[in-house]
Structures are given as C-alpha cells and as structure tokens.
Amino acid sequence: MAINSADYSQDFIKELSGKTVVVKYGGNAMINAALKAGVIEDVVFLTKAGIRVILVHGGGPEIDGMLKAVGKESRFVQGLRYTDSQTMEIVQMVLCGKVNKDICALVQNTGGQAIGLCGIDGGLLQANRIKTADLGLVGEIETVHPQFLESLLKSGIIPVISPVALGCGADKGQVFNVNADTAAAKIAAALQAEKLVLITDVQGIMKDVHDSSSLIRRTNRAELAALKESGVLKTGMIPKADCCALALSGGVKSAHIIDGRVPHSILTELFSSSGCGTLIG
C-alpha cells in the first residue's frame, strides 16, 4: 500500500532530514505479514525523505522454531536466552542468515536499498561474557565501532543488523548472542542518533496495562526512574525503559516505545503531533 505523505506533518519530516534514526524491529511486527510490510514501508519512506535509518532486528520465534526442529529445548534465564555452543550456531544461522536476508529482501522489494550485517562485521559490536548469571554464550556489549556504517548511510543504504557480537579481551575470538534492544541503544548512542525507536507488542509505557487510556505519551529519564521505583514499569517493560535510558545517557536526543501491531506506527509516532506510543526525552 502506497504511503500518502500528506497524512504526516511536513515540518516533522523536514526536521528529521539528514539525521539518524535507529529502529529496533521485533515482536508481532516481524511475524504478521501485513504488519511486516508496514514496518518496511515506513523505513523505506524515512530513507526517501532523507533520514538515515539503521534497522536492528530480533528473531526469537524463528530461533525457537529452529531449536524445536533439531529437538533442542529453548531455555531462558532472567528473561535472556541461555546460549550454549549449539544454540549459538543456530542463532547465527537464523539471525545472521535467514531473518537478516529476508528483511533485506523486503526492503529491496519495497524500493529501498539494504545491506545485511551482524555485529561481527567490521568489528561493529564487541562484547564480553555476561558474568552476573550463567547464560552461556550471552555477551554484554563493551564497545561499538560504527564508523563503516557512515559510508552506508551517506549512500542512502539501510544497514540491517542482527545482534551477534565478537568477543574482546579475555573472550577474544568468541562469538556472543547479545540483546537486540541493547544493541540498538548502543549503536544509537555511538552514532549520536536523533532517535531510537523500539517496536514492541504493547502501546508503550502505561500506568495500567489493562487500561488503554493510561498510555504515558511523554516522559523523561528522571520520571522513568520514578515509574520503575513505584512499580508502574512491569517486568517486560523494565528492560525496554532501561535501554531507552541507556541511549539517552549516551547522547541520543529522544527514544520512543511504540506498538508494532498498529499499521505504520513508526510514521505515526514520528510525524504526527499526537504520536502513538511513548516518547522519552
């Protein structure tokens, strides 16, 4: 479906022209064909409007499916996937291979240009093994080297990045599974992006998850801390909010948590006065 640019504020579009937006793509918007098409259309629209877009993706359901196909059970510790050597091979195969290239194909078929990458390429993401819990080959990102992304962005190419990192220090040479939200936040900070957009399966931050009218449309880092302390932020939203705070502390101008179940939610959030999710800045 063609996007009608008249539906969105030209002032907001001009304001973002030439600036960098990092989008973390996951949830139902990666599974439902119509929603998937809408996300990719939004991303291509941003690029054609002169906005530099980086797309960082997850792929949990696809990994679960492949693990099941080989007879291996998915296991999670503190919300993170336990990753042994066999699981790491499947993560690389699924995320860096099929999922990444499927997204690139969608971008190309929608009229954009994309190059698929993972955090290993160009030493983009370097990580050490997480030591706070036994998670196997799950890494904590220590360093981001985004310089080579600049040449892609200047050419109007959309880097599509899967969250796999290369070990550094004592873990040099090891490949790690890393959290996609954190990868997006750290890449956004390293590039001093204008915006970080996290696509989720909820409206945004809500005072009451059972009341759609309780959506918090705008907040800031200080208020985020208060919401966390008061218990408004529930288990699933806490890491999302923490990633937004991480990006903001790294120099990103604003972060957005939006509902990927809403068609064209990226454009609605960025280019309309009311938005459709939670803006943190």
Which descriptors apply to this entry?
281 residues, 4-stranded mixed sheet, 14 strands
Q: How do the strands and helices of this protein lay out in sequence?
A:
Elements: H1 10-16, E1 20-25, H2 33-48, E2 52-57, H3 60-69, E3 76-77, E4 80-81, H4 85-109, E5 114-118, E6 125-129, E7 139-144, H5 147-154, E8 158-162, E9 164-167, E10 175-177, H6 180-190, E11 195-200, E12 218-219, H7 221-230, H8 237-249, E13 254-259, H9 265-271, E14 278-280
Parallel strand pairs: 1-2, 1-11, 2-8, 5-8, 6-9, 11-13, 12-14
Antiparallel strand pairs: 3-4, 6-7, 9-10, 13-14
Helix pairs in contact: 3-4, 6-8
Number of helices: 9
Q: What percentage of amino acids are in beta strands?
A: 15-25%
What is the radius of gyration computed over CA atoms, rounded to a whole number of angstroms?
Answer: 18 Å
Structural class of the secondary elements?
alpha/beta
Main β sheet profile: 8 strands, mixed
Order of strands, main sheet, comes to 5-8-2-1-11-13-14-12
Overall average residue pLDDT:
94
N-to-C span: 32 Å
Total number of β-strand segments? 14
Overall 3D shape: globular
Percent helix among the residues? Answer: 25-40%
Low-confidence regions: none
What's the SSE pattern? HEHEHEEHEEEHEEEHEEHHEHE
